[in-house]
Design brief:
about 400 residues; Rossmann fold; 2 domains; eight-stranded mixed beta sheet; five-stranded parallel beta sheet; 19 strands; about 35% helix; elongated; lyase; decarboxylase
Length: about 400
């Protein structure tokens, strides 16, 4: 599972506007980006490594000849969904336009196939220099986004075109260029994932086939769209997603406790976990001999969705899942939606073990307004975004 959000390299050029990139980094993080900062050596005269490491929470890379065995310029280039260079000096623009690669940042740019965004900041004379104008024209012809600088006061008494744009403007242009939006910024999304296990003894349990892949896809997609995400994961093998708060549980009772503790702070609950309906009336912390295990007495687990919907606050959106087999799946799912007061429910046919543990899914999204949307075979990541679209629209 990839880390939270979109991986972005923030290159920092050697201009006085480097200090403004500290705020830009924060605003990009607010919009679901994970930032790795790659400053030029010259830029460290303005803002030091310690500042970038503290703000990004990551190691800062600036030396092409450090950790050579890991080939950092290639690994960083491949891991980045996009590269933003802010400020981009006249020197950096010239290097990139001519294909020069004489430091770590320009080597990463040279090795990257990801979108590249340059944010020029320099004195008006440098921005209007014919060489800079030609270099910008070349870069734009190659598909790079070069954001025009603002006009205004620069260092000293100088004023004119060349001022570093506002962080808000840069973020807006970056997201437009990348074709994505942090449309869940400020929203807390609570997601359940996996399958609960109800212990019989030290080695046996009642469980199901849920892998948790769909729940993790939902958590990742929500974080990518700027949400604060809480993931309650039952017996999942996936690694934790960076930036997502993950609470690991085993049983239905533990899941109910974790969800209940966080439900009031969430605007959206998506219940993708497969919760065991029953648990053994008695369980042992020792292995029970099979001769003593001829039968089990079961007791019903709490209905987590029904319990939580009874406590819902005004404006909260709740989306459920229904795994069905055979005919009548949609009718059963609609009955579940109405009985539990859900805003929407995703239903699929898991006959023969289908869907569980797989990368693809298909089914239908049933809305509380009565509409049904068929979901043809697609990735669980794509379904996650479809369900988050439903939640976003319900939130208004």
């Amino acid at each position: 599972m990839p880390p939270r959000g979109r991986e972005l390299i923030l290159g920092v050029g050697g201009g006085i506007a480097a200090y403004k990139s500290a705020d830009l980094l924060r605003r990009l993080q607010d919009h679901g980006f994970l930032i790795t900062v790659v400053p030029t050596r010259a830029s460290l005269n303005f803002v030091g490594k310690a500042t970038w490491e503290a703000l990004s929470g990551r190691e800062v890379h600036e030396d092409l000849w450090k950790n050579v065995s890991s080939v950092p310029h290639i690994s960083l280039a491949r891991s980045a969904d996009a590269i933003v260079i802010a400020p981009a000096t006249a020197d950096l623009i010239a290097k990139i336009a001519t294909g020069r690669a004489d430091d770590l940042l320009t080597n990463i740019v040279s090795a990257s196939a990801s979108p590249i965004i340059l944010v020029p900041a320099m004195h008006p004379e440098m921005w209007l220099n014919p060489a800079t104008i030609e270099n910008v024209k070349i870069l734009r012809s190659r598909g790079l986004l070069v954001i025009d600088p603002d006009e205004g006061r620069l260092t000293g008494a100088d004023s004119g075109p060349g001022r570093f744009p506002t962080s808000e403007r840069i973020v807006h242009e970056v997201e437009d260029f990348l074709g994505s939006k942090a449309d869940l910024q400020g929203v807390t999304v609570l997601v359940s994932a996996g399958g609960t296990r109800e212990p019989i003894d030290a080695v046996r349990y009642l469980g199901n086939l849920s892998s948790g892949k769909q729940g993790y896809a939902l958590a990742y997609a929500a974080a990518k769209r700027g949400a604060r995400v809480l993931l309650v994961a039952a017996n999942c093998e996936q690694p934790d997603i960076e930036g997502v708060t993950t609470i690991h549980v085993k049983t239905a009772a533990e899941m109910l406790e974790a969800l209940s503790a966080n439900f009031a702070s969430a605007q959206v609950l998506i219940m993708s976990a497969a919760v065991a309906d029953f648990r053994p009336s008695i369980s042992s912390d020792q292995k029970i001999d099979k001769s003593e295990l001829a039968s089990l007495t079961l007791i019903e687990n709490p209905d987590i969705l029904k319990t939580l919907t009874a406590r819902r606050l005004q404006g909260q959106v709740i989306i459920g899942f229904a795994a069905q087999t055979g005919e009548g799946g949609s009718e059963k799912a609609m009955a579940k939606l109405k009985a539990k007061g859900l805003d929407a429910i995703y239903v699929n046919d898991v006959s023969g073990g289908a869907i569980f543990g797989e990368e693809l899914t298909n089914g239908s999204i049933l809305d509380s307004d009565g509409t049904i949307s068929t979901v043809a075979t697609t990735s669980k990541d794509s379904l996650a975004h479809l369900l988050l679209d439903v939640a976003r629209n319900k939130l208004g």
